[in-house]
Write a structure and sequence with these properties.
The chain is an all-beta fold and 102 residues long. The chain has a single domain, classed as conserved putative lor/sdh protein from methanococcus maripaludis s2 fold. The chain is 0% helix and 57% strand. The chain has no helices and 8 strands. A 5-stranded antiparallel beta sheet has the order 1-5-4-3-2, with no helix packed on it. The chain has a 3-stranded antiparallel beta sheet with strand order 6-7-8, with no helix packed on it. The two termini are 24 Å apart.
């Protein structure tokens, strides 16, 4: 499950942004059950992936980012693995801090 605010709608698919090795990566996902606050991801994510939940308008694939804090919101057992999601506070290009808790 990921927060619904992390989903980015497209014409024929939905995607999320991840922090991977200091860069923003775009990942197309297949969704399942949805609540008002969370959505099930059926395909496209692996346990431990760091899904960006804030600052989505400022980032783009390949942009250098540094995760400066991780606020776990939920854990879920799925297929023997633990999926952890939360707000990622990142710095873009080392100088602009976006997202996270105030």
């Amino acid at each position: 499950m990921v927060p619904t605010i992390s989903l980015i709608p497209g014409l024929n698919s939905q995607k999320v942004y991840l922090a991977v090795n200091g860069r923003v990566e775009e990942r197309v996902v297949k969704t399942g059950i949805r609540t008002s606050e969370q959505v099930q991801i059926l395909e496209g994510l692996e346990p431990g992936d760091k899904v960006l939940t804030t600052g989505l308008l400022q980032v783009r694939p390949g942009l250098a980012v540094r995760v400066v804090s991780h606020q776990p919101e939920n854990t879920q057992q799925e297929n023997g693995g633990q999926v952890q999601v939360g707000s990622e506070q990142v710095q873009v290009n080392g100088d602009q801090q976006i997202g996270g808790q105030p």
